[in-house]
Structure formats: structure tokens, C-alpha cells
Write a structure and sequence with these properties.
The complex is a heterodimer of chains A (258) and B (117). With 258 residues, chain A is an all-alpha fold. In chain A, 79% of the residues lie in helices and 0% in strands. Chain A has one domain. Chain A contains nine helices and no strands. In chain A, helix 1 runs parallel beside helix 8 and helix 3 packs antiparallel against helix 6. Chain A starts with a helix and ends with a helix. With 117 residues, chain B is mostly beta strands. Chain B has one domain: Cupredoxins -  blue copper proteins (Immunoglobulin-like, Sandwich). At the A-B interface, helix 2, helix 3, helix 4, helix 7 and helix 9 of A face helix 1, strand 6 and strand 7 of B.
Chain lengths: 258, 117
């Protein structure tokens, strides 16, 4: 049970740590008030508990596809707010509050609700709660250590002349989450994704530790389908393209003012 | 409306258009039952290059998450409830699945075969 808890912690909660690494680098030069941080934390906790407690009811909605549709909507909201935030990183945080709130709360709800279901299941097995808590402590340690190193890397990239690598990584993170939409929709037969394009599992298996980390960072899938790949590419290109347009517009505006 | 907001909305519509639904073909139905944290039958044979519907019934008193990295499927099935997932079309091969909350006992495989099951 300890190993299961650690694996689930990495699978479900590592992406949240990765998101916070990106956001803290985006807004590292701005002061975020304690009140706003508390509001985001409260929003994250409430949205997670709301999804967790209503998951059983939601799963029965729309002929049993309610849960998938809910996750699709949340992932879409997360993607849109994530793209928006990355475009407006230089503007004061006060102007990004709503989108930042949506971005964090939706993502925590998506990733956290599944972990709470696991927690509730183990709670019913006497004696295993202690092992789950121990697994969570180990998982927290791994995620915290990874985040500290990853945040340092992102911060250095952002301040260096290789800022474009930071943009690529952020876009890949958003695209990885957005591409999950195709899996969810094909799981309930709303779209047809076709056969897998290739199989990279001989290099990195999805179930391995590297697979989990790559999935959290870039949405890695060892055997993606055509629909998933197309969605990934579109979702990857959108933030980069918009960022480039914004930069060109801003520099043109600066030249005009000068 | 600011122009950055307009661009984000336009981009969202572009992304959504890539996910337009298609008309579903008639599919074969298979059943899995979860009891005592064990999937029955543990081995399910489905046809190759064809989309199939799998109905998973959870007869345990706790929730379980059907998970398969090979099939790229993940679905929580609450206690005493059923869930439906669609898989495929897949090339012939063996695809592992497991119950995420009880991975030691709840395990099985989907065999995708060219021969008719």
C-alpha cells in the first residue's frame, strides 16, 4: 500500500507541483498578497472536495459520461486560463487574478479529486491508512525535491537568453494536459481517435517512474493516437504563436511611442 | 474586449474544432466484473482493428479505478455501480489493465486478436 500511495501521489499530485513551479517563475518579480494566496488555497481545496463528493452523482449524468465531460470542461478551462496567464505575465498580478484563480483551482480539482477517492477507499481498510500516510510523506518528499530543482532550472532559463526554452516547456505542459481531452472523449465514444501512431514503450514505459515524470511535465504517452497527436500539436503551437504575436505587437507599440 | 482576449477565444475555438465528434459505428460489447478486488474474467479477448465497448461492473463495497497505460484508459467505478468505456481500434497484442487502488489483486489483460473471439 505504501508503494501504491507513492505512485498515486506522483501520478496525481506531481503535475500540481509542476504547475506551481511555472506560476512562481511567471510571477516571481511580483508581490502576491497573503490574502490572494489564501483565497487560491481555499478555492483549490473547496473545488477538489466539491468534485470528490459529487463525483459519484456526476458519473451517472448524461448516460454515464458525466465524469469525463466534467474533466474535459475543467481541462479546457485550465488550458485557456493557462494560455491567458502566459500572455499577461508582465502585467500586474491584480489584472490576472480571475484567470490565475481559474487556472489553479481547476487543475487542483482535476488532479486532487482522484487522489481523494483513493484516500477514501483506503480509509475503509483498517490498518492501511497508516501506510497510505507514510506513502504520502514519501511522495511529498519526492515531489518537493523535484519541484525545488525544476523551479531553479525554470528560473534560470527565464532569466537567461534561453527564455524560449522556458516558453517551449510551458507550452508542452499545457499541450500535455489539453491532449488528455481526446482520451477522455474517445473513452466515452464521443470522438474516434483511431489506432496508436507508434509505440515508444520500449524506451520509456508509461507505468515507469520516468513515464510518470514525463507525463507530468509534457503529457507523455508512449502510444499516442492520431487525434491525440493533432490536439497536442495544436495546443502546443497556440501559446507560442500568440506569445510571438503579443511580443511583436508590444515592440511595435514601443517603437510607435518612441 | 481586449485583443489578447480575442486571440485566446479564437485559439480555443480552433482547439475545440479539432475535437469535433464523429458518428459512432455499431460496436461489440464485452463485460468485466470486479469482485473481491479481482477482475473477472482476468483475460478478455477482443477483435483487432475494431472499436469495442467494455462494461465494467463493480460488485465490491469500495470504489476502484480501472486503469490501463497500454489502452490509455482510466475510469473510477464507484461501489455497486457500472461504467462503460470504449477501446480500440487496436493492433493485435496483449494490453495490461489493473485496478489502481488494488494493483496486486485487481489485474488482467485484454488480448487483441485477429481471430474472432
Amino acid at each position: 500500500m505504501i508503494i501504491t500511495s507513492v505512485i498515486l501521489f506522483l501520478k496525481d499530485l506531481l503535475p500540481i507541483f509542476v504547475l506551481f513551479c511555472y506560476l512562481s517563475v511567471f510571477f516571481e518579480k511580483q508581490k502576491i498578497t497573503l490574502a490572494f494566496m489564501s483565497l487560491i488555497a481555499l478555492g483549490g481545496i473547496l473545488s477538489t472536495f466539491a468534485l470528490f463528493t459529487m463525483a459519484e452523482v456526476i458519473s451517472d449524468l448524461f448516460e454515464g459520461v458525466g465524469l469525463e465531460l466534467t474533466f474535459v470542461i475543467l481541462l479546457f478551462l485550465f488550458y485557456v486560463s493557462g494560455v491567458y496567464i502566459s500572455l499577461r505575465e508582465t502585467s500586474p498580478i491584480a489584472r490576472n487574478k480571475v484567470m490565475l484563480f481559474i487556472c489553479i483551482t481547476t487543475f487542483i480539482a482535476i488532479e486532487g479529486a482522484g487522489f481523494l477517492v483513493f484516500f477514501s477507499v483506503t480509509e475503509q481498510h483498517t490498518g492501511s491508512l497508516q501506510n497510505v500516510l507514510l506513502g504520502c510523506i514519501v511522495g511529498l518528499g519526492i515531489c518537493s525535491s523535484f519541484s525545488a530543482l525544476f523551479r531553479f532550472l525554470l528560473s534560470e532559463l527565464k532569466q537567461s537568453r534561453y527564455e524560449w526554452v522556458f516558453t517551449l516547456l510551458w507550452s508542452a505542459f499545457l499541450a500535455g494536459q489539453a491532449s488528455k481531452i481526446t482520451s477522455l472523449l474517445s473513452q466515452v465514444d464521443i470522438i474516434s481517435t483511431g489506432a496508436p501512431l507508434f509505440d515508444a514503450s520500449r524506451w520509456v514505459e508509461d507505468s515507469s517512474e520516468y513515464g510518470h515524470i514525463l507525463n507530468a511535465l509534457f503529457g507523455y504517452e508512449s502510444s499516442p493516437t492520431l487525434a491525440m497527436s493533432i490536439t497536442y500539436v495544436i495546443a502546443f503551437v497556440i501559446p507560442i504563436t500568440i506569445r510571438s504575436i503579443v511580443k511583436i505587437k508590444l515592440s511595435a507599440r514601443e517603437v510607435a511611442h518612441a | 474586449m481586449q485583443w489578447t482576449t480575442r486571440i485566446v477565444i479564437a485559439a480555443s475555438i480552433t482547439l475545440a474544432s479539432g475535437l469535433m465528434p464523429v458518428i459512432a459505428e455499431e460496436t461489440k460489447v464485452f463485460a468485466l466484473v470486479l469482485k473481491n478486488h479481482t477482475f473477472m474474467p482476468a483475460t478478455l479477448t477482443i477483435p483487432a482493428n475494431e472499436k469495442v465497448k467494455i462494461i465494467i461492473e463493480n460488485k465490491d463495497d469500495t470504489a476502484e479505478e480501472f486503469d490501463s497505460f497500454d489502452l490509455n484508459r482510466e475510469r473510477v467505478i464507484f461501489a455497486g455501480k457500472s461504467a462503460t468505456i470504449y477501446v480500440g481500434p487496436l493492433p493485435p497484442g496483449t494490453y495490461e489493465y489493473f485496478g489502481e487502488y488494488h494493483p496486486n489483486s485487481a489485474r488482467g489483460q485484454v488480448i487483441v486478436s485477429e481471430e474472432r473471439p
